[in-house]
Amino acid sequence: MGLKSTCSRRALSTVISALILSAVTLAVGGSVWAFSQGAMTITAQNYAEAVINMTDTISERFIIEMVSYESVILTPEQIETGDGATTVFNLDNFPVFPGSETIYLETAAQPDDDTVYTLVDETGVITFVAAPATGVAITSDYKYIINPLNVWIFNYGTVDIEVKVQVKDITYPYAEDEWIKIPSMNMVPFPPITLGIISKEELNVKAYTKRGNNAFYRFINL
Question: What is the pTM for the complete model shown?
Fold first, then answer.
């Protein structure tokens, strides 16, 4: 009787072990299957997004349609007459072409090394280190920018684009996360770019999109 009882218990233990092993195998297999399905879904989504992005990138079609720039030389401009106290004066026109000005006290040209005055090109504000004497005529020759550098970009593709422009190694807009949006089949003037361009100077204007496509334009200031 004792021997039979031992054999029965051993047989039962084997059956239970087999059932437990089967359950574990099914559980692990189910987990692996679920993980595989999830991975396949993520992979499929990523693949679809990559294809869409690649299609949009390939579909981009844009050109720099036109670039314009204009400046004028003024000779001379009567600014003010000194009163012995005032140090700040304003030019009538600005932005001033950088380095183009000559400031006169009476007929004497003043050095432009910041020892006598400073000039803010963007605003045309002149600040003298010492106030010009009473009755002294203050005049100036200078070139000012009538029309800053304007860039027109034509998006003739089927997708909207976001663009930056690069001129003289300076990128516009300045902010890294700021881009100019141009809808499909539209031409948009870029925000005016104020910079000095000398006569006969050649500029290489580059426009590039957020997706990494480029367009170039060679501009010569006549």
Answer: 0.55
What is the reported pLDDT for 147?
Answer: 74
Contact present, 89 and 118 (Cβ < 8 Å): no
Q: What are phi and psi of 58, to 5 degrees?
A: -65, -30
Nearest-CA neighbor of 165 among 209, 115, 122? 209
Give me the pLDDT at residue 220, please: 87
User: Parallel, antiparallel, or unpaired for β 161-167 and 108-109?
Assistant: unpaired
Element (H, E) at 181: strand 180-182
Nearest of 78, 75, 96 to residue 136 by alpha carbon: 78
Q: Which of 13, 69, 104 is nearest to 194 (CA)?
A: 69
- 63-68+151-220 has which CATH code? 2.60.40
